[in-house]
Amino acid sequence: MSQSIEDGKVVQFHYTLTNGEGQVIDSSRERDPLAYLHGAGNIVPGLESALTDHEAGDSFEATVPPAQGYGEKQGPGPQSVPRDQFPDDMPLQPGMPFMAQTPDGEQVQLWIHAIQGEQVLVDQNHPLAGETLHFDVEVVEIRDATDEEKEHGHPHGPGGQEH
Ligand code: ZN
Fold first, then answer.
1. What global pTM score does this model have?
2. Burial class, 99, CB count within 10 angstroms (exposed 0-12 / middle 13-18 / buried 19+)
């Protein structure tokens, strides 16, 4: 009996992601399909809801507005931080996420926007914030999540977390 995608299913799918200008941002096609636990917020909300009720073998396109993707751009824009504020052995690359601590001791997620000599531009926005995302999706496999996966909130095994 074929299963359809609903909360508590582990889904493996292939995707190609293009931005509003038609540039390919990312694709799973040269890798194993991505696995996620449906209903656990592992993937952007707009893509998760577009996958609901699909079955293995389905191919479809989903257009996800920023609010259902990586959010609208917020804040003052990229801020300059001296390179020596980062650990020496940390390889810095544009688009790379990292955790930082605010003066209040709160952990926040930031992204490296660009590197300019000894200055690193960092931003609070995900690199794809403000972008309308176009996903080309193929559902590969659907199975029931294990109790452990439900507890962890993510899938284990191929395409999921290895631990
Ligand atoms: Zn786990």
1. 0.85
2. exposed
Ligand 1 midpoint to CA 6 (Å): 20
CA of 32 to the centre of ligand 1 (A): 19
CA of 11 to the centre of ligand 1 (A): 15
Q: DSSP letters along 62-90, please?
A: EEE-GGGTT----SS--EEEEGGGS-TT-
User: 134 CA to middle of ligand 1, Å?
Assistant: 29
Distance from the first to the final alpha carbon of the chain? 31
Going residue by residue through the chain (163 aa), what tens digit of pLDDT does each one get?
A: 679 999 999 999 999 999 988 999 999 999 999 999 999 999 999 999 999 999 999 999 999 999 999 999 999 999 999 999 998 898 899 999 999 888 899 999 999 999 999 999 999 999 999 999 999 999 999 999 999 999 999 999 888 888 8
